[in-house]
Amino acid sequence: MFGYYLDLALRSLKRNKVLTALMVIAIAVGIGASMTTLTVVHLLSGDPIPDKSGVLYFPQVDPENPPRADHTEPYPAMDYRSAMDLWNAHRADRQALVTSSSTKVRASDTGKPPLILSLLSTTADFFPMFEVPFQYGSGWSAEDDARHSHVAVISHDLNNKLFGGANSVGRSLRVRDTDVRIVGVLKPWRPTPLFYDPWSQNFSKTEDVFAPFTSSLEINDGNFQPYTCWHVPDDTRHLQNADCVWVWLWAELDSPAKARAYASFLADYAEQQKTMARFATGKDHVRLRNVMTLLTARGMVPDDVRLQAWLAFAFLVICLFNAVGLLLAKFLRRSGEIGVRRALGASQRAIFSQCLVEAGVIGLLGGFFGWLLTLLGLWLVRQQPVDYAHLAHVDTAMFFATFATAVAASLLAGLIPALRASRVAPGWQLKAL
Amino acid sequence: MQIQPVLAALRRHRLATLLIAMEIALACAVLCNACFLVVQRWKLIQTNSGVDESSLAVLTVNGFEPNQVTDLNARMLNGLRALPGMQSVSLINQVPFGPQVGAAGISLDQGSFTNTIGVVDFVLAGPGTFQALGLKLVEGSLPSADDYLLATNLAPPDARVLVSRALADHAWPGQSPLGKEFWCDKLHFRVIGVVDHLARAHPHDWGAQSVEWTVFTPAQPGGSLAGTYLLRASPDELPRVLRAARDAVPKIAPDVVLDQENSQTIDDLRTDYFKSDRIMIDLLIGVIVTMLGVTALGIVGLASFWVQQRRRQIGIRRAIGATRGDILRYFQTENFLIVTFGIVLGMALAYALNLLLMTHYELPRLPLYYLPIGALVLWGLGQLAVLGPALRAAAVPPVVATRSV
Questions:
Q1: Is A371 exposed, middle or buried (0-12, 13-18, 19+ CB in 10 A)?
Q2: Is residue A294 domain-shared with residue A306, that is, in the same domain?
Q3: Selected residues 319-338 of chain B with any CB under 8 Å from a CB in chain A
Q4: Residue B334, SS3?
Q5: What is the domain range of residue A27?
Q6: Distance between CA atoms of B245 and B259, rounded to whole angstroms?
């Protein structure tokens, strides 16, 4: 029967091309708009490190003292002392201190002009923790951290820019006024969103130079910027003893039990600091969030994108109402035909399924054009000067989702009209013929 | 035109009528709110920076050490001033729409944040910057030469400053701000004058009321005032002068690195700053147009169907004396009634949508005058969409009545 219904549907669609085109366009436009924005939202709220996002934790304590009246959440960073205290306790399976600053970099032996780049200061565990892929060489060791070694890891981009993509391990790089030895070159690596840096633009690039926390604090002393301060530092360029937050800490905790233990360690630390009068708030302002909870708390999808998604959704609903109205017109126009079929023995059920098949065909057509419009929409998004533009591509899931949504939407839209059509009284229609 | 028969006919098509009305209602809700959003964004883009944007550019260099700033400033100021077409070069820490450098919380008390005024931008400015920016003094006096003090921090420890009128009104409502004092932790400030308008670097990152919460702080070149230079030239020469200045940097100070992204005309910085708002406006307008188009298509489709369905009835009406105008007006009235029904629903929906948006976004309440405007647009759209099918209906000849089928 399905084949027969399909044939009937195609004939009916061909009979009134304008009405068919109107419906297909309405569905295609609705689908195109909503799938474009949904794809963007889907991509923006993705997991940047799916294998490990559940075991990577971002501890937060609140060193602000005295606190502001409207201060209810700890800052997404720590002061130097808290970060060092927590790091030195070595309570996690792996842990990394991280901070970012900008610095002047040049490769002395290449003769290229100096560049101002961002420098990520971190500890040895950073690379295995965040599964950073290496092209050449590797990260540095914990001893390098302890010995304040002058070593660095550089990004794929920077290696291309300075050394034309060649293996530059062992070569030297001048960071500000110090020569450091390159020990590793990364493969292209761009976690999106840039989860490990809680105050970057969400979709910005990774840093170009990575160096040990201890040595880079000396090398680039004076160029570190605070996230915020609650007392104006005596020397804005030297933050180790300032009342400012500017260092962040990551901990890898392999089991929920360890995470619980770490959370209580963190709370104890905050309480102890409160007793010492260094903190104003104790465990109330302690947070231990894993990657996805942190990203959700931070609000990853930009407001504008969410607004666009809502708009697109409203738009799809309007298109659906439109399709219902048009399908109703289309089906009821054939009341006479339906009456004949009913008189010849077709059940209400048969008429109903025939109408739904027709709606489904329209949905498929709408889905196809909707998918083309989605591609166009995403192309338009990629042309926009926004930092997430590079992400806007259709993946397989979204490809199938487009068709599923289109068919589901048109079936939904066809439901009431099909029901109406199947209830056509055969006698009345035949009399009218 | 009698409404009674039209209503009676519509009652026979309750479902289709309801569908079109719902579509109109949704369109009305989205239309009102989308237009409102467009106007809001448009207002943002129109933000008055208070400076002579078309004559100004900023040039930023990085990669120098604290002990080099005096030498760097002297070289840069002299070198850039020598360029042909350059009217003035002076020091500033930040410009409207450029990177934010000097934002900090201020309070009426020393060292505490209990009596806070809010987060303001400290615009550190060297001699000549006030004139170069083209700021307008509305009260008090300009800083004297002695007021330009060395700042190694956010601002000099004890500064005599100018505040924007918006900040003065906020901090000391109803009083003269002249002579008033405020603090940023241990830094002390005394107000000596008020400028008409001066926007902060990122005017819309801190809420709509604080767009101009700025403190114009005179400072001596050196310390934290180095590396960012305000260039002034006549508007038509500015792009050329800026290019020449950017090219001259390697000769003037070979060891520093030009910050490409932040060495631009203020006009370009402004365009860049508002780019996402522009995209949003384009998108919203696109949505409005397509949505109205789809709604119109729906009306055309359904009206055509009704016309075809009622051919015989139309023929009969024509045969018993109805004029073409009567038939035309019948369909127009019908459409008007359906659209009106939709608009009534749509106004409530528009309001609800606005409340929803207000909870999620920083948006004011939808002004009521948007509703009648939305209604007018949809009535017009409905009439326009139904005109084609209605004309076709009016063209049905009376003879149809005598034919079967």
A1: buried
A2: no
A3: none
A4: helix
A5: 2-45+302-432
A6: 12
pLDDT of residue A433: 55
Average per-residue pLDDT for chain B: 90
Say whether A115 and B257 touch across the interface (CB within 8 A). Answer: yes
What does the domain layout of chain B look like in residue ranges? 3-45+276-403, 53-269
- Vertex B379 angle, CA B378 and B385, to 5°: 85
Residue ending a domain, among A266, A298, A330, is A298
Across A164-286, where does the E strand assignment appear? Answer: 172-175, 178-186, 209-212, 228-229, 244-245, 248-252
How many domains does the structure of chain A reveal? Answer: 2
Inter-chain residue contact A325 with B23, CB threshold 8 Å: yes
Polymer length in residues for chain B = 405
User: How far is CA B357 from each of CA A79, A304, B33, B286, B348, rounded to the nearest angstrom?
Assistant: 37, 12, 9, 20, 14
- How close, in Å, is residue A61 to chain B by CA atoms? 21
Same domain as A277, residue A151: yes
Closest CA to B287 of B71, B73, B27: B27
In chain B, whose CA is at the least distance from the CA of A318? B23
User: Edge-to-edge, what's the strand order for the sheet holding B257-258?
Assistant: B88-91, B228-232, B56-62, B257-258
Q: pLDDT of A194-226, one tens digit each?
A: 888 877 666 778 899 999 999 999 999 888 988
SS (H, E, C) B261-318: CCCCEHHHHHHHHCHHHHHHHHHHHHHHHHHHHHHHHHHHHHHHHHHHHCHHHHHHHH
In this structure, are A266 and A312 located in the same domain?
no
Put simply, whether the predicted model's pTM sits higher than 0.90 gets the answer: no
State ipTM.
0.78
Min CA distance, B1 vs chain A (Å)? 26
